[in-house]
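Hi V.,

You were right to ask for the full record rather than a summary. Here it is.
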Amino acid sequence: MTNPIYIDQKEILKRFKQPDKHTHKGIQGHALIIGGSYGKIGAVSLSSKAALKTGCGLVTVFIPKCGYDILQISIPEVMVLTDNQEKSISNITFDITPQAIGIGPGLGQAVETQNALHQFLKTNKTPLVIDADALNILSQNKEWFSLVPPKTILTPHPKELERLIGKWHFEEEKMNKAISFSKQHEIIIVMKGAPTQIIDGETVYENTSGNAALATAGTGDVLTGMITSLLAQAYEPISAAILGVYLHGLTADIALPETGYQSFIASDVIANIGKAFLTIENVE
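Predicted structure:
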C-alpha cells in the first residue's frame, strides 16, 4: 500500500501563502456555492459562511427561492442568486465569474436537480468542489465524470465513497479502489473520516489534525466551503484540499477544551477558523 504523506505543520507551511497587505476583495477570489433544497438551506448557509471565514473576498450562493430570506438575514455578507423553482434547483444559470465553485450541500436529488447538474457539468470550466447530493447524483450517472474538469475535488464521507467506487472489505482494497478511481477520472478525492485521507492519483496524504468532535451534522458542508474558498484564492487544487482539511481539523482541536466532544457543532468549526489560521501564521 502507498505510504501516505502526513499533513502536519511542516506540510502546511510549504503550501500556505500569507495574504498581500495591499489586497482587496476584488482580487481575493470569488467563490460560488450551489446547493440547498426545501428543509436543507442550512447546509448552504454553513458552506457559504465557512467560505467567507476562510478568506475569499466574495461569496455568492445559488439556491432555490425558498432559501432567499434565510440567507439574506442569516449571513448578510453573502450574495444570493435564486433558481426559478421554489423548493429545489432546476436550472443553474448565473452571470457572475467565480474563481471556484462548490456544489452539492443540501442539494437534494429531485429529477429536475439531476438534470440541472448534468447541464451545468456540460458547460462548466471553473475549478470545482463536488460534495453531498451532487456526489450521489454522479454515482448514479458515472458516465458524467467525463464532463468533470481535471483536478476537481470530491469530498465523500464513507457511504458516498462506497457509492462512487463500490464496496470494499478491508482498508487496502478501499485505498486501491480510490487510487484507481482518482487516476481514471483525474480527480482529487478527500476521503472524510478518522483520519481524513486525500488521494491525488498515486499520491496519498493523511491528515493529522482533528478529533471525534467533528462527527456531527454539517461539518462536511463547512469543509466544502473552506476548500472552495481556498481554490477561489488561487491555491492549486491539491493545496486547497490539504489546507482546507488541516484547518478544518485544527478548529476542533482548538475548541475542544471549551466545548468537549459532545457540544461541538458545525458552527463551532466556522467560529474557530480565524484561530486556526493564527496558529499557522504564528509558527512561521
